[in-house]
């Protein structure tokens, strides 16, 4: 009972603290475009959404010669690869009936390109749309020395139903907690999408994710790979101490995800997401 009480007290205190924090304007602070980025979108039979998602990224206010969009068409049986390519993405088509799912698709994709040509990779879901300044904000924090960055997620359609409104609140609540952790100099927990990882980190830690909860698993791998963490109250910027770093949530790097408008749609969507991982 004590542990449960402490858990909820932690959430309450961090939430109250976060309410006093102001978010930067969406798309700020923007970098100068000095980092070269590889954006990866794992997709399994996503022909209904992939083209608009690719166009959303390609419309970013970021130098066109400084980023590439890769769609990983993973065991697709529909027109995902064709539509992604027509929308302007570089398509990596993968067929593997044994190692299926997002985590394996990403590991395979990282091995298909020369990561030395990029400063960082960005991972997005196939139905994500990004704010035009999303990549620019990531560039700013990469230039400042941050190695792992989590973007701020919101629901694209919060007013469609009570289901989407509930998801919108959940995203707001979780991102607020992460803002508090970042302001206190603590590591943010990564989500499964909207994250940016320096290629230096990928070379050091790798991408060896095998579970369904790839976001939690990779967060733990990162934490275990760096032995020293320091709490620096009220400092948001990462401070290097014996090669330690924290993982930042940046509220200015803004992206959206679509949510089904009915409870049945949420259940079937979640089942589909799990099936994608083990299809």
Word description of this protein:
The protein is an alpha/beta fold and 279 residues long. It has a single domain (24-278), classed as Spore Coat Polysaccharide Biosynthesis Protein SpsA, Chain A (Alpha-Beta Complex). It is 40% helix and 17% strand. It is built from 9 helices and 8 strands. The protein has an 8-stranded mixed beta sheet, sandwiched between helices. α1 (2-18) packs across α6 (162-183) and α2 packs parallel to α3. The longest helix has 22 residues, at 162-183. Residues 227-247 and 270-279 have low confidence and may be disordered.
Mean pLDDT: 80
**Percent in strands:** 15-25%
CATH class type: Alpha Beta
Q: What share of the residues lie within helices?
A: 40-55%
Strand tally is 8
CATH fold group = Spore Coat Polysaccharide Biosynthesis Protein SpsA, Chain A
Main structural class: alpha/beta
Q: Span between N and C termini?
A: 39 Å
Strand order of the largest sheet: 3-2-1-4-7-6-8-5
- Provide the domain count: 1
Report the CATH architecture.
Alpha-Beta Complex
Number of helices: 9
Coarse shape: globular
| Rg (C-alpha, Å) | 18 Å
- List unreliable stretches of 5+ residues: 227-247, 270-279
The name of the CATH superfamily reads: Spore Coat Polysaccharide Biosynthesis Protein SpsA, Chain A
Transmembrane segments: 247-267
GO molecular function: glycosyltransferase activity
Keywords: Glycosyltransferase, Membrane, Transferase, Transmembrane, Transmembrane helix
Family: Belongs to the glycosyltransferase 2 family.
């Amino acid at each position: 009972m004590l542990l449960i009480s402490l858990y909820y007290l932690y959430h309450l205190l961090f939430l109250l603290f976060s309410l006093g924090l102001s978010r930067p304007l969406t798309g700020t602070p923007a970098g100068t475009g000095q980092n070269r980025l590889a954006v990866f979108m794992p997709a399994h039979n996503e022909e209904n959404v992939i083209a608009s998602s690719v166009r959303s990224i390609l419309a970013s206010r970021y130098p066109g010669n400084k980023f590439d969009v890769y769609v990983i068409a993973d065991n697709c049986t529909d027109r995902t690869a064709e539509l992604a390519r027509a929308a302007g993405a570089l398509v990596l088509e993968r067929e593997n009936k044994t190692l299926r799912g997002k985590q394996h698709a990403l590991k395979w994709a990282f091995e298909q390109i020369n990561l030395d040509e990029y400063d960082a990779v960005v991972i997005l879901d196939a139905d994500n749309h990004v704010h035009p300044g999303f990549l620019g904000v990531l560039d700013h924090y990469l230039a400042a020395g941050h190695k792992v960055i989590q973007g701020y997620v919101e629901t694209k359609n919060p007013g469609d139903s009570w289901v989407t409104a509930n998801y919108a609140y959940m995203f707001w609540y979780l991102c607020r907690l992460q803002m508090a952790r970042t302001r206190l100099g603590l590591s943010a927990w990564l989500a499964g999408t909207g994250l940016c990882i320096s290629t230096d980190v990928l070379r050091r830690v790798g991408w060896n994710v095998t579970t369904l909860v790839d976001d939690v698993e990779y967060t733990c791998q990162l934490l275990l790979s760096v032995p020293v963490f320091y709490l620096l109250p009220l400092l948001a910027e990462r401070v290097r101490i014996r090669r330690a770093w924290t993982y930042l949530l940046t509220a200015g790097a803004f992206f959206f995800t679509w949510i089904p408008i009915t409870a049945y749609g949420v259940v079937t969507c979640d089942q589909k997401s799990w099936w994608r991982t083990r299809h």
